[in-house]
Specification:
This protein is α/β, with parallel strands linked by helices and about 270 residues long. It folds into two domains: about 200 residues, Alpha-Beta Complex (2-enoyl-CoA Hydratase, Chain A, domain 1); about 45 residues, Orthogonal Bundle (Lyase 2-enoyl-coa Hydratase, Chain  A, domain 2). It has a six-stranded mixed sheet, sandwiched between helices. The radius of gyration is 19 Å and the shape is globular. The structure holds coenzyme A.
Length: about 270
Amino acid sequence: MATIDLGALQNVRLERDGHLAVVVVNRPAKLNALDDQTIAELDAVFAALDADDGVGAVVLTGAGDKAFVAGADIAVLAKQGVLDGKENARRGQALTLRIEQSRKPVLAAINGYAFGGGLELALACDLRFCSRAAKMGLPEVSLGILPGYGGTQRLPRLVGPGRALQMILTGDPVTAEEAERIGLVNGVFEPGELLASTKAVAMRMVSRGPQALALAKQAVHRGASLSLPEALALEADLFGLASSTAEMKEGMAAFLAKRKAAWLRS
Ligand code: COA
């Protein structure tokens, strides 16, 4: 993958609001479609944010008022053969894994169309909120392909195989209301309120223990692909790990002293 200079991003904008980072996919003329450059930039940005102890949570959204991300770039997909098709899926999947495995909570603010790779990006986030005007779907079968950035695996885990197969096999989008009803999104906001409302939820997380957040994310995401006894063993291990941290001592001392915990953030 190309080396990315974080000071000269072309298709991604990175904004900071205290301990909150807002990552904006910024290719509005193409409805923020994911070409190679955009995927490489997102990958570099999420790697940097994960390593930055000053960042407590991340909000991912799209530029403009029309689209979150209208999918992988079809102009690129149209030219791919077997090997680059596989490489393209692998790169997109690596990005979704990076987001999912980030130590920080990542919240998607779905401000419009989230199709194909766009919905798959949102599925890799920990929480999803959308605007009342948003439309979400996996239309790949109408292009003669299938979802390749994790959609066939994460969507059924989130909404169940029946609903996921309906979306994947018809390619039809769902509205914001339907997405909320089936548990695809955590909540729906008016378009003008989406970003501020998503940031407010993210700030609730920033007020919690950063290491505890990272361990809780790990328990949920790693546990999802284990048997229940294995997942419970993982939970006990992570609980044990949390019990060894200065963060736990501070969190409990703060509770007992009836004061706010002072977390170790730079
Ligand atoms: N890849 C590449 N370009 C895309 C794109 C994508 N996934 N989605 C939109 N664009 C481009 C369009 O080609 C157009 O570019 P142009 O102005 O240079 O012709 C521009 O973004 C605006 O899109 P347009 O289709 O004119 O907007 P619309 O409001 O009429 O329709 C959508 C919006 C989202 C319904 C429509 O763009 C669409 O169906 N996009 C593809 C969605 C998809 O199948 N995604 C999965 C890909 S695997």
